[in-house]
Every structure is written in structure tokens, then in C-alpha cells.
Specification:
The chain is α+β, with helices and mostly antiparallel strands. The protein has helices spanning about 1-25, 85-90, 120-130, 265-305, 320-325, 345-370, 380-390, 395-405, 415-420, 425-440, 450-475, 505-530, 540-565, 570-595, 605-640; strands at about 40-45, 95, 110, 115-120, 135, 140, 145, 145-150, 155-160, 165, 165-170, 175, 180-190, 195-205, 215, 220, 235-240, 240-250. The longest helix has about 40 residues, at about 265-305.
Length: about 650
């Protein structure tokens, strides 16, 4: 019973972390206070795909709110773009002004947004398809997304789900369009000399009303609920867009207004996954420690004891020495080759430098998000922070790459300096650019504009590249990291490997264990990413990231130890590829997610999904591979420094 109470207490603490994150706002993100009757701007964003009724995702394309086929009303004088952050643009946000009028604390019933519009057959067909695919409309009021009220049966709680349905399908699977919107806005009263009001929640209840119309006196008749509006794909369909506004005073403080949006889906699964991963890691680390400590302690003692025999004692103690020499096998026999330069040292050092950069960037970003410094109230700030932190840590990438390459004995230092900031980022940017061409050709609003691409190139070449060059210059000025044993001039022959120590089986077995530590959290990240939901469970993510680091290091060290015992001193690439295979499993998991949750009707959507998943898997490959390599390097340096070698 006491264990259950402690578990509930820890559960409450971790679940409170996102709430603390939501309540923390960066300097400069100040609340907006309104007088009664003052205009409150309502901005519109792109339409995004979501889960359909059969719990499938049918598209990865977002569409501009003012796409001609939707026939949404435009403001007088045309829609104006709203300034956005770099990360917001990269994630597809296209925020613009709207003709909807909101006045603080003033209810308004049944207003027409604009005169009647006409859907032709082609527009009706396009819109009906988007309705069947579960597309959602996204509005923004005072920085808060307009949401629909959802009920979670697992936790018996109500929460705000950002976005609301473009339409729905009836019992006959025929789509109908939502053309009336009841906007319910929660406000909080702030008394500071005179009454001021702040927006703390936005709900939208969309309805389909075929009998809504604009009257001759300019007022609107919003019709009745139940008479759904079905767009005729063979002819013209008149549509009148209407809305009502209802203001409701709320005790919710402005600092905690995001709490109702940030909902943990099925927290029991998160906890079971976290506990399972933690137990697995403890078991793995304990097993590795037991194997290595017992075996290494025995080996080191035996090797050092054998070194005490002098040549003069060989005749008198021939039998004992013969027995000892026969036992003198395994990892000590390769002491003269274990620090030998690996194949393709330049490429490996470049990749490891970028891996160190990714490791630092990921750790700092997740830590900042955990502390609430990357609040969801500042749209796109998480992506912007990732870009800027990664660029600033270019100095770490250059330094690590140079130190590793110099320790390998490399001489092409100019090529190392040039390749470190260009090869891996170039692969990522090139893949992103090619995939963006597919998005642009599809006419999606998610296509990154030309000037945003230019901004990315400027961050890359103006910030990251110079810092990487500076880090490389400083790294090459440092002394090389020399091993505790000397390298023989003639390389030792590597015996053939058998069983699980062969290349492919060892890589597959090493990579699957770290993937198991992040599998469940990865599922929630994938769901949030492809269904355009807010992911904010950074407390769980931080713990999973730590478990992944420990698992990657432990499994790779164990692999390298078994390789050395089999007298295989070519551990560098094997360690990197073994831990890096976690990225391969991430990509394979994405393909399984595609087979079970995705249902793309065209080739373009499949290409985009596979392409972006491959980029994510490649980044994880570089990250986990570098963790495994450096853990193995430290392990080898430690054990060979503990033996006496003539």
C-alpha cells in the first residue's frame, strides 16, 4: 500500500511538470488586456489533416485557409499576413487576418460572416474529400488555438483539443459541411484601477445548417440544427457562413490558461512504459557491470601477474608459465592494435563531430522544454530554438571532429574542417529541400517559402559554419588523444567471427535495445507529428532520453568487449553502427506506423512520409551511433590503461 502511495505521488509530480511548463512564460510574452467592447482579433491558420472516423490518417498536406476551393469569407481589403517565427513557418503555420469580429464580453447571436457564396461541383468535390479525410480548421484568438471540447474515457476528463472539424460524415458515410460556428470564449477579469479582461480559453462548436441564409435587411437567419448541408458535386451549392459569439467569465488565471489544452493521453501507458524501460535499463546495466567487472577484474589480475615473470624464471617455472601463457588470450592480445586507425577515419570523425553536436543540442533543448522555457504560447519557438541551438553548437561539432581525427592520426585537416559543417547538414538540408518541392507541387500551404529557405541557409553558413571552423581550429591545436598502449607496426590478423558476433547480427542486436527504451514515447511523438497535435510531455521525454543514452552506452560497451575477447580489434565502426542501428529501428517503426495508421491515396503523400521518416531516422542514427562510439572509446581506454604491457 505504501508503494502505491509513493507511485501516485511520483505520478502527480511528473504529470505536474507539463502544467509548470505551461504556466511559465518567457520575458516579452506578456498578457493582453482588453476593455469591455474592445475588438479582439481572430486570426485564421491553415487547415490540417487529422484522424478520421476510422482512426486513420489519410493525408500529410496542409492547405491555406483561403484556398479557393473552400470559399471561406475574406476580410474587406483582402487577408493580411500575420508575422510568424521561423519555426512556425517551418511547421506549416500560415496565419492571416479574418473578417470575424469579436468584442470583449459582448455576446453576439447569429451573424453572417459575408454574403452567400457558391460552391461549384469541383470545389464541392475537393471539400468533401477533405471532410472525409478528417481535416480541421484552425483559428487563433489572443494566441490561443480555437478548440473543440473532447472527453477522454480513459481518465474521465474533459480537455480542449486544438482545431475543429471542417465537416463530418452521416450514417450513410456522406460528408456534410459545417457552415455555422458557435464561438465560446472564456475570459478572466483583472482589476487594476479599472476593469480589464483577458482571454483564457476559446471553444468552437461547429454545426452544419443547410437552411441558414442572409436576409434582405442585412441580418442573418442561422437556420436550425439537424438540417445538414451536403455539397452537390454535380452542380452548384449556395452556402452562407454564420457564427455566434458567447463570452463566459472563468476563474482560470491567464498564466495557467494552457493547462486545459495540454492533455496527457492515456497516462497509464506512459507510466508502464517508463517503469518497464527503467527496470530494463537497471537490469541491463547490472548485467553489463557484473559481466565486465568480474571478467575484467580476473583478466587484469591474471595479465599483471603474468607480466611479473622475468625471462630468467622461464626455465624453472616452465610448466606454470606455459599454463599462464595458454590462458593469456582474449582482449589483451590485441593491445597493440586496439588503438589502430580505423578505415575511413575522415568520414568517421566528421560524423562523430556532428553526433556530438546533435547530442548537446538535443539535451539542452529537452532540458529547456522540461523547465518550461519553450512555452507553446510562443508558436514555433521550439523549432526555432532547435535550429539556433544546433547552429551555436557548431563549435562543439568542429572541435570534437578535429580532436577525433587528430587522434586517428589523420593528416587531411583542411578536408576535415570543410566537411564537418557541410556533409551531414548538407544531407539533411538537401533531403528537406527535395521533399519541399513535392509539397510545393501539391499546392499545399506547408511548402516552405523561398525566403525562409534563404534564412535557413544564412543560419547555416553565417552562424554554424564559422563556429564549426573555429572549433576545428581550436581542436587541431590540442594534443592528440593517445592510447595507453603502443600500436604495432604490422596489424594483427583478425580471426573470422561466428554467431552473434558477425557484423549484421551484432548490429541488429545492439540497436534494438535502445529502441525498446523509447518505443512507446516515440509512438506518441509520431501521432502528434502527423495528426498536428501539441506534444508537450517533456518530462517523460527527458527521462526516456536519459534511458536511451544509458542503454546505448551499455549495449555497445558489451558488444565491444565480446569483439575484443574474440580478438577483433576493429571496433570503431562496429560500435558506431551497432548503436546507430537505433535510427534504423526508428525508421522501421515509422513504416509500421504507416501500415497501421496511415492510408495515403497517392504517391506524393507516401514519398513525403517515407522521406521525412528517413530524415528522422538518419538524425537518430548519427546521435545514438556517436553515443555508442564514445562510450566504447572510454571503456577501452580505461581497461587497457589498467594492465601492464611491456
Amino acid at each position: 500500500m505504501r508503494f502505491i502511495d509513493r507511485a501516485n505521488l511520483l505520478n502527480s509530480v511528473l504529470l505536474a511538470i507539463p502544467s509548470l511548463s505551461a504556466a511559465f512564460y518567457l520575458p516579452g510574452v506578456a498578457p493582453s488586456s482588453y476593455d469591455q467592447g474592445q475588438n479582439v482579433p481572430l486570426f485564421v491558420n491553415h487547415l490540417t489533416p487529422g484522424l478520421s472516423r476510422d482512426d486513420q490518417v489519410y493525408s500529410v498536406f496542409a492547405y491555406d485557409y483561403y484556398h479557393p476551393a473552400f470559399h471561406f469569407c475574406r476580410p474587406d481589403g483582402g487577408a493580411q499576413d500575420v508575422r510568424e517565427s521561423l519555426g512556425s513557418i517551418l511547421f506549416g503555420d500560415r496565419i492571416r487576418t479574418s473578417p470575424l469580429e469579436l468584442h470583449m464580453a459582448q455576446n453576439e447571436t447569429c451573424k453572417a460572416i459575408c454574403p452567400e457564396v457558391m460552391f461549384d461541383g469541383r470545389s464541392s468535390q475537393f471539400t468533401n474529400r477533405r471532410i472525409s479525410q478528417g481535416y480541421t480548421i484552425n483559428w487563433i484568438v489572443d494566441g490561443l488555438p480555437a478548440a473543440q471540447l473532447n472527453f477522454d474515457q480513459n481518465t474521465n476528463t474533459k480537455f480542449y483539443n486544438p482545431g475543429f472539424a471542417l465537416g463530418d460524415v452521416d450514417d450513410a458515410e456522406k460528408p456534410f459541411l459545417n457552415n455555422h460556428f458557435d464561438i465560446i470564449i472564456d475570459y478572466h477579469r483583472v482589476t487594476a484601477g479599472k476593469d480589464k479582461f483577458r482571454v483564457v480559453g476559446v471553444l468552437v462548436q461547429p454545426e452544419s445548417r443547410s437552411d441558414s441564409r442572409l436576409l434582405e435587411d442585412g441580418t442573418a437567419d442561422c437556420g436550425t440544427s439537424g438540417n445538414v448541408l451536403i455539397l452537390d458535386e454535380d452542380g452548384d451549392t449556395p452556402v452562407t457562413w454564420t457564427y455566434s459569439v458567447y463570452w463566459k467569465e472563468s476563474p482560470t488565471a491567464w498564466a495557467t490558461r494552457w493547462d486545459k489544452y495540454l492533455h496527457v493521453y492515456d497516462p497509464k501507458i506512459h507510466w508502464f512504459s517508463l517503469i518497464n524501460s527503467a527496470v530494463f535499463v537497471v537490469f541491463l546495466v547490472g548485467m553489463v557491470s557484473m559481466i565486465l567487472l568480474r571478467a575484467l577484474k580476473k583478466d587484469i589480475a591474471r595479465y599483471n601477474r603474468l607480466d611479473q615473470f622475468s625471462l630468467e624464471d622461464l626455465d624453472s617455472t616452465s610448466a606454470a608459465v606455459e599454463d599462464g601463457i595458454q590462458e593469456d588470450s582474449g582482449w589483451k592480445l590485441v593491445h597493440g592494435d586496439v588503438f589502430r586507425c580505423p578505415e575511413h577515419p575522415l568520414l568517421l570523425s566528421v560524423i562523430l563531430g556532428n553526433g556530438a553536436q546533435l547530442f548537446m543540442m538535443t539535451g539542452v533543448t529537452v532540458a529547456f522544454a522540461l523547465l518550461g522555457l519553450l512555452s507553446p504560447s510562443n508558436r514555433g519557438f521550439l523549432a526555432t530554438a532547435i535550429l539556433l541551438i544546433s547552429a551555436l553548437f557548431g563549435v562543439i561539432g568542429g572541435y570534437v571532429s578535429a580532436r577525433v581525427y587528430k587522434s586517428f592520426g589523420g593528416e587531411s585537416w583542411k578536408r576535415n574542417i570543410i566537411m564537418t559543417p557541410l556533409v551531414v547538414p548538407g544531407i539533411i538540408f538537401g533531403g528537406f529541400f527535395v521533399l519541399n518541392l513535392f509539397v510545393w507541387a501539391k499546392g499545399s500551404s506547408g511548402a516552405v517559402p523561398f525566403f525562409t529557405m534563404v534564412a535557413l541557409l544564412l543560419i547555416w553558413f553565417v552562424i554554424s559554419v564559422p563556429l564549426s571552423v573555429a572549433g576545428s581550429w581550436f581542436g587541431f591545436r590540442q594534443s592528440a588523444i593517445e592510447g595507453p598502449t603502443k600500436t604495432n607496426q604490422i596489424p594483427r590478423q583478425v580471426p573470422p567471427m561466428s554467431g552473434s558476433l558477425r557484423t549484421i547480427p551484432s548490429i541488429l542486436l545492439t540497436g534494438i535495445l535502445p529502441f525498446g527504451a523509447i518505443f512507446v514515447e516515440l509512438y506518441f511523438i509520431m501521432t502528434s507529428l502527423w495528426t498536428n497535435k501539441i506534444y508537450y510531455m517533456f518530462g517523460f521525454l527527458f527521462l526516456c532520453y536519459g534511458l536511451m543514452i544509458i542503454t546505448s552506452a551499455a549495449t555497445t560497451v558489451l558488444l565491444v568487449y565480446f569483439l575484443l575477447c574474440a580478438e577483433n580489434y576493429r571496433w570503431q565502426w562496429r560500435a558506431f553502427m551497432g548503436a546507430g542501428m537505433t535510427g534504423g529501428y526508428v525508421f522501421l517503426n515509422a513504416l509500421i506506423f504507416w501500415a497501421t495508421r496511415m492510408n495515403f491515396g497517392g504517391l506524393t503523400g507516401a514519398v513525403l512520409y517515407v522521406g521525412y521518416s528517413a530524415l528522422i531516422g538518419f538524425v537518430v542514427f548519427i546521435l545514438t551511433g556517436s553515443i555508442g562510439f564514445f562510450a566504447s572509446w572510454a571503456f577501452i581506454y580505461r581497461i587497457y590503461g589498467s594492465i601492464k604491457v611491456d
